[in-house]
Automatic annotation (TrEMBL):
InterPro entries: F-box-like_dom_sf, F-box_dom, FBXL15_LRR, Leu-rich_rpt_Cys-con_subtyp, LRR_dom_sf
Gene for this chain: FBXL13
Keyword Lipoprotein among UniProt keywords: no
Record domain F-box: where: 154-200
Biological source species: Felis catus
Cross-referenced PANTHER family: PARTNER OF PAIRED, ISOFORM B-RELATED
Signal peptide: none
Record keyword DNA-binding present: no
Source domain of life: Eukaryota
Keywords, sorted A to Z: Leucine-rich repeat, Ubl conjugation pathway
Protein name, UniProt field: F-box domain-containing protein
PROSITE patterns the record matches: FBOX
SUPFAM superfamilies membership: F-box domain, RNI-like
Amino acid sequence: MTPELMIKACTFYTGRLVKTHFCSWRDIAIPLTNEDDELAEKIERAMKYNNFRLQKYVFHLWHSYVKGQKKQLTDTLSQVQKMLHCYKLTAILTKWRDKARLKYKKREDELILKHELQLLKWRNNLKLKLAANEESIFPEPSLSKVSLEGNIPECDISLLPQRAVSQIFFYLSLKDKIICSHVCHSWMLMTQASSLWNGIDFSTVKNIITDKYIVSTLQRWRLNVLRLNFRGCILRLKTLRSVSLCRNLQELNVSDCPTLTDESMRYISEGCPGVLYLNLSNTIITNRTMRLLPRHFHNLQNLSLAYCKKFTDKGLRYLNLGDGCHKLIYLDLSGCTQITDSAIEMLSAKCHYLHILDISGCVLLTDQMLEDLQIGCKQLRILKMQYCRLISMEAAKRMSSIVQQQEYNPGDPPLWFGYDYEGKPLTRQHEIPPPKNVEWTVTESTHSSQEEVV
């Protein structure tokens, strides 16, 4: 290698090295001078982006608020319109009612005035007739004879207001209504007023009325009948089934009906769920009927089971099943000699609204029953326990301080009750007919102290 080539190689190598270091220094030094500007530019872009996001968020909140206000305003306007429409309807109905009452009152006044004018005319004619008789040479007849002789002025009852006619026929029995309906066509129309058939008492005509007439009557007035009384009636099963047609029935009395069975009570309970008063005294119902009562009669308030000997403690416990007869206010168990303390315990655990309880003649009940009543029946007001020989005087005295009225007698039941002190039926040689004019109820005697207790 020649010196010239060596010099040339060193020069090239030195220039290359200088160029490399200079480029590296330049790459390091120049960015340091522009870093502040780039950082400021990035900060500015970040602030713009942040401001944009903030404006977008605020605008979204404002949009939601305005939308909610519009919806609230629309709902308020709709409610105001509904209230205004309701007020308009109320005003129209009020004016219509006042106008109808005025028209009805005017018509009633006209009918009353017409009736008074007719009555005045009849009195004037009667006075003229009396005056003419006084001038004659014949002896003066009495007022009663004058009123019965000659042509009697007409006094049509159909001209009376409908309210007065209904009030007159309301006091008639079923037999009298039937007789009045055969007088004439106008009287028949007056006896067909629906308000006169809200309560039908078939017990007053039980010896003359037929099953066919009972069925036809119930079919015709099934929507108006609220009260039915079949006390002592001997009816067929088909006739008792027709009671189920009365969907609005509230009171039913089938006491002393020897033909009443569990099957007929099943039809009645399924068809008449709104019964409030039910009297089953002295019938042959069993536990099947007792199981039907809480299933269908949820609003039952008054129940009478006096002298029903076929059901047991289990049947009485059925009253607490499901919704049960928990609204009972009055319960009559007098003469039910098969009832024990366990049944009363279950009954008092659910019937918290019981006000009146009659257990007269229940010879198997003891002092434990009174303790259960004190715990469960807080609202008990009247307690009747005549001829309950197993209830002590001390327990009865403690109970008298809780209830308002109490009837207690520890003696044996009279022979005409039909059973002895143990609840067993009397033999024929011991049976004594009940005294006249005495029904199968216990004599009331309220005791407030130990001296008054017999």
